[in-house]
Design a protein that fits this description.
Chain lengths: ~450, ~325, ~325
């Protein structure tokens, strides 16, 4: 039985409706006016080096009067968000530090400004940069002189370990007794597994610890960026070096299948529980909270780890990605900085790149916590001593290998994420089956891209 | 279902003194037909623009090979290739199976819990209104935010859920991961979904229970029917239309489900909780295979629409009984 | 008539106590997760990720400070050189060797949620009231089909709808704009609004309008003076339901906005601190975001059933 409402409420309702109307109209009128003061927006991922870049950028603002604004996005949504932005011809970013694998798509879709003329005009030579970074972050097509980015952040996968635990006499003795050799940072993956098994479940300082931390993230790129470090060293290749895009027998060779199995064994035997979807931050957490003896992560984080009050300083050590039975590579990380083609402030953006390319700025970039790709900085005689992880960084950059940088890289990556995570974490099928399905997936992707894939 | 109510004197007196507000120049006013069209047209126009036009565009796209990340490639018309691709892809069928299992399990659980709660609340104990409001809160939250904070609650090392289970059963907290294990993850999403939406079913069932007139029960009492018999032959049959309505709405919503599961498990581990919406999002907005994902979207829509139609016909037949 | 022990109509006092106990137990268990999150908003970083999980802890406003600010970590020497902190939030942050660098994006995001929410609600209710009135009072050809069409637009998965909308908005330069999101949410909400309002308006007897028409009022005047005042509670309830949908919506927001027009739901899960998710800040954002919803739930108690079933079920 509803009673009729009286007119008393209509006054209040009228007021509310007016409020709604006012807000709605102001919303539609409130499209932001174009900024008149000079400013640039730089887009990157949100991590330690980004904070260092903010510090470094204050110099640029002082010199040029252009204010720097930053848009930093967590790694897990970095590709998603910015590929979306680039695809929708967004105006958010003037400069973007895009991932190395985006370069193919960015070049073909004309998302980035081609920098050859700019480099020529400003006398910036790509020979001044570490070759692996030029190929990895700047060139498309690969190994041609077409540049779409300036190498900004050189990075690769490396390992940290608890030097203090490794130096404890009781632990050293126990290890020597068990394995007949001294406990030291592993040079091969078999050694790494041995050490990880040794530490797994051991009680140190009253807490149970675990052997190793490896990437397992499903959503963006985590597990792929972890597993390639093992796969490369077991003989995995993306395609026939003599016949591009021929993948059968190279992606899914018996050796590669063994490598995949090894990663799964390592995951099952020697890692902390519950890390079924873990990437960079979880690794930092696990290591900093004293949970693991060895951690796989990007060099980008090592300055921060070294400064950590709990596990830094003398307690932390670094080693290069161990070798496997067939090869010795490490997964390339890092990014180049590019000018977004739809930006309204391309000239100012180029000014930033010119400033960033200077050797003095690159040196300061290294000192603040970034990783310079300039030869003058990393090949300087004092470099290996400048930080405890510098020698390992140099050694790693000499053996880097990257994932596909094709325009269709996102599909290739997502296919591999799925097949690999299904096998390693969700226990689906065998390693050979996973890789066979992966070849099928990738063949389809290349087919759609218009590339012919030779079967044998 | 209009109810006749007692007129309010104030309303009547206002109606009977129109002379004050009538304008001096008498306009005939627009005819009823014109007004009807004027009132309905903007809504229909908006829906046509935002729903139908894009749908038609999408149907066109589904016959092409458009890939937004490789838009420099020439656009090829591939006819039904996308559709045959999808319908013959074992993975897509697995995702549909996962989605179907999710819908069936969670709706069933919600119906059991919701109906049970409704029966209990119908006893009208003291304070039931307050506690009902408390139970209703989870359903009003943003599913995305819910999915996100449950990842904290389910963390094996630091989350209260595992800790609570370990207190109750003695199993060590870090020995299982609700969102990370193949056996547990599908049940985890059912659990969180039920936590959110059992109140929904409860509310509908309550309405159903309260619509059963008392005299039917009193007659049954006179006939000395047992409580169980009363439940089985009065309560349940008369609540069935309401239950069916709840099942319809929940099934449609769960078939569309994206936010909560994406943030809770990202479809993992592997693809054990990858619902079909998540696959669609990855195909459309991460792989940028627009043509392919348009075809998938159409297949999904036809499925839901068709199933809902059949169900609604069934529902109408039940209502008329 | 005395209630017998097994009567359903009049439950015995013992049955009531049992029922009450169960329901209260369920209510308490069901609200615990939410309470835990609210509690986490007041925990410090280390307490939030402590093991075993802390039920008793020292409350602090760090989470809220982290939510509203952007901080940089500095070395202790650098901090020693700075002037002493004045505001309470500065002090909190300095304790952790950090310096506030500026405001975070949470306020613009919250504002976006408000603007897009209210904007789309106003439009949807406005259009919905007109259409509902027409469906209710006039004979519109194909009315049932049109109404079903309006309802069926809600059956599409949002991700599916987003695909062509994304392309369309790209062409029209509407990606990542508030106007674009308002239009989209209005289109989705108007279906709910039409169905709910039709139900409300159906319940207003036609006699009053007819009396007004006889007295010489035009249709429009009758609508304004007779129907609307009586429909006000219905309109308000519908408005709040539309607002809740826009407030909580995630799929469209995450796919079609990135910076300018981003609302809270895509923002909250990605508030990161120094190591992964900043749980106290995320919890603080969740708490603030959820407060209006809790208020609305209490306000809407009477109309909740009608709202969630699109008007199909009314008490």
């Amino acid at each position: 039985m509803r009673k009729l409402t009286t007119g008393m409420k209509s006054g209040r309702a009228g007021g509310a409706l007016a409020l709604f109307a006012g807000v709605a109209l102001s919303a539609m009128a409130s499209q932001p006016a174009a900024a008149q003061s000079k400013q640039l927006t730089l887009c990157w991922a949100a991590w330690d080096p980004a904070n260092a870049l903010v510090e470094l950028g204050k110099d640029f603002t002082k010199q040029s009067g252009i204010e720097m604004k930053y848009e930093f996005v967590p790694w897990t949504s970095y590709a998603d968000r910015f590929l979306n932005e680039l695809n929708s011809h967004g105006k958010l970013c003037d400069l973007i530090i895009g991932d190395s694998q985006w370069i193919g798509g960015a070049a073909e879709n004309k998302w980035y400004v081609k920098l050859n003329d700019f480099f020529a005009k400003e006398n910036i030579s790509m020979d001044d940069f570490v070759p692996a970074t030029v190929t990895g972050y700047s060139q498309w097509p690969k190994n041609t002189a077409n540049y779409w980015a300036l190498p900004a952040m050189a990075d690769a996968v490396g390992w940290t370990y608890r030097k203090d635990w490794f130096s404890r006499p009781d632990i050293q003795a126990a290890f020597k007794a068990k394995h007949g050799r001294d406990l030291e940072p592993p040079k091969t993956y078999d050694e790494l597994k041995q050490i990880a098994e040794f530490f797994q479940g051991r009680e140190i300082d009253g807490k149970k610890v675990y052997g190793a931390y490896i990437f397992t993230e499903r959503g963006s790129e985590g597990i792929t960026m972890g597993i390639t470090n093992v796969l490369y060293n077991y003989g995995f290749n993306y395609d026939n070096p003599k016949k591009p895009y021929q993948m059968q027998g190279f992606v899914n060779s018996a050796d590669a299948a063994k490598g995949l199995e090894f990663y799964k064994e390592l995951y099952k035997c020697c890692t902390a529980p519950g890390l079924t979807n873990a990437y960079m931050q979880e690794g930092l957490d696990a290591f900093k909270s004293g949970q693991v003896a060895m951690q796989m992560n990007w060099f980008a984080f090592f300055p921060g780890l070294y400064k950590d009050p709990n596990v830094g300083g003398d307690k932390i050590g670094f080693f290069v990605n161990p070798a496997g039975p067939k090869a010795h590579f490490t997964q390339l990380g890092g990014q180049g900085i590019s000018v977004v083609a739809t930006s309204d402030r391309k000239d100012d953006a180029l000014k930033y790149i010119k400033w960033f390319a200077q050797p003095s700025v690159q040196q300061k970039w290294w000192e603040l916590g970034g990783y310079s790709a300039l030869k003058a900085v990393v090949e300087a005689p004092g470099f290996p001593k400048s930080a405890p992880f510098a020698p390992q960084f140099l050694a790693s950059m000499a053996i880097v290998k990257d994932f596909w940088a094709e325009p269709s890289y996102a599909q290739l990556l997502l296919d591999m994420q799925k097949r690999v995570h299904d096998y390693v974490v969700a226990d689906k099928g065998t390693s050979q089956q996973a890789l066979d399905l992966l070849v099928k997936d990738w063949t389809k992707v290349f087919g759609e891209q218009g590339k012919r894939v030779a079967a044998e | 279902m209009t109810t006749i109510t007692q007129p309010d004197d104030a309303a009547i007196s206002r109606i009977h003194s129109p002379t004050v507000s009538r304008p001096a120049w008498r306009t005939r006013g627009l005819s009823d037909q014109t007004i009807a069209w004027l009132f309905v047209a903007p809504t229909i126009a908006l829906l046509l623009a935002i729903n139908i036009f894009p749908l038609i565009w999408m149907i066109r796209l589904s016959f092409t090979s458009l890939n937004l990340s490789m838009s420099y490639l020439p656009l090829r018309v591939v006819g039904l290739d996308n559709f045959t691709d999808i319908l013959t892809d074992e993975d897509v069928w697995l995702r549909l199976q996962t989605t179907a299992r999710f819908v069936i399990s969670s709706v069933t659980l919600q119906v059991i819990v919701g109906f049970g709660l409704a029966l209990l609340i119908n006893r009208q104990f003291r304070g039931h209104s307050f506690w009902t409001t408390i139970i209703l809160l989870p359903m009003m939250l943003s599913p995305a935010v819910v999915g996100n904070f449950w990842t904290l609650l389910f963390q094996p090392q630091i989350g209260p859920f595992n800790y609570l289970i370990s207190l109750l059963t003695g199993v060590p907290p870090s020995s299982f991961s609700m969102t990370g294990e193949v056996a547990l993850a599908p049940w985890t999403i059912v659990l969180v979904d039920t936590w959110m939406w059992a109140p929904y079913v409860m509310l509908i069932c309550l309405a159903g229970l309260r619509s059963i007139p008392d005299y039917i029960y009193e007659a049954a009492e006179v006939d000395r029917a047992s409580a169980w018999r009363q439940f089985w032959s009065i309560t349940l049959p008369m609540t069935v239309p309401f239950l069916m309505l709840a099942v319809l709405f929940r099934a449609i919503e769960n078939f569309k489900m994206f936010d909560m599961v994406n943030l809770l498990t990202s479809g993992g581990p592997g693809s054990t909780t990858e619902l079909v919406s998540i696959t669609l999002k990855r195909a459309a907005f991460e792989k940028w295979r627009t043509g392919y994902s348009s075809a998938l979207a159409i297949i999904l829509f036809v499925t839901v629409f068709g199933a809902a139609n059949i169900y609604v016909k069934l529902l109408n037949r039940v209502k008329q009984r | 008539m005395t209630a017998t022990a097994h009567s359903i109509v009049q439950a015995s006092p013992r049955a009531k106590v049992f029922a009450g106990a169960f329901v209260i137990l369920y209510a308490v268990i069901t609200i615990l997760p939410l309470l835990w999150i609210v509690a986490t908003a007041f925990k410090s970083q280390s307490d939030a990720i402590a093991y075993p999980p802390k039920v008793i802890f020292q409350p602090t406003l760090e989470g809220f400070v982290n939510l509203f600010t952007v901080r940089t970590r500095q070395t202790p020497d650098f901090i020693a050189k700075l002037p002493p902190p004045e505001a309470w939030y500065d002090k909190l942050v300095r304790q952790r060797d950090m310096v506030i660098a500026g405001p975070s994006k949470v306020v613009p995001r919250f504002t976006n949620s408000l603007i897009i929410g209210f904007g789309s609600t106003f439009l949807a209710v406005f259009l919905g009231t007109l259409a509902a009135y027409a469906f209710s009072r006039f004979r519109i050809p194909l009315a049932d089909d049109l109404l079903f069409f309006i309802l069926s637009t809600r059956m599409m998965p949002p991700v599916a709808v987003a695909i062509p909308i994304y392309l369309m908005y790209r062409h029209l330069n509407l990606t990542d704009t508030r106007l674009g999101m308002i239009l989209l949410y209005t289109a989705v909400n108007v279906s709910l609004a039409v169905w709910l309002l039709k139900g409300f308006i159906d319940e207003i007897p036609r006699e009053y309008e007819e009396a007004a028409l006889v007295d010489g009022y035009t249709r429009l005047q009758a609508l304004r003076k007779v129907v609307l005042p009586q429909a006000v509670t219905g309109i308000a309830a519908t408005a709040i339901f539309c607002l809740i949908f826009s407030w909580n919506e995630y799929a469209f927001a995450v796919l079609l906005t990135s910076g300018e027009a981003q609302t809270m739901p895509p923002f909250i899960p990605f508030i990161i601190g120094e190591g992964g998710q900043d749980w106290p800040a995320v919890a603080a954002a969740t708490t603030l975001f959820v407060i209006p919803i809790v208020l609305f739930t209490i306000l809407l108690r009477k109309h909740l059933l009608r709202g969630i079933t699109f008007g199909a079920v009314r008490k």
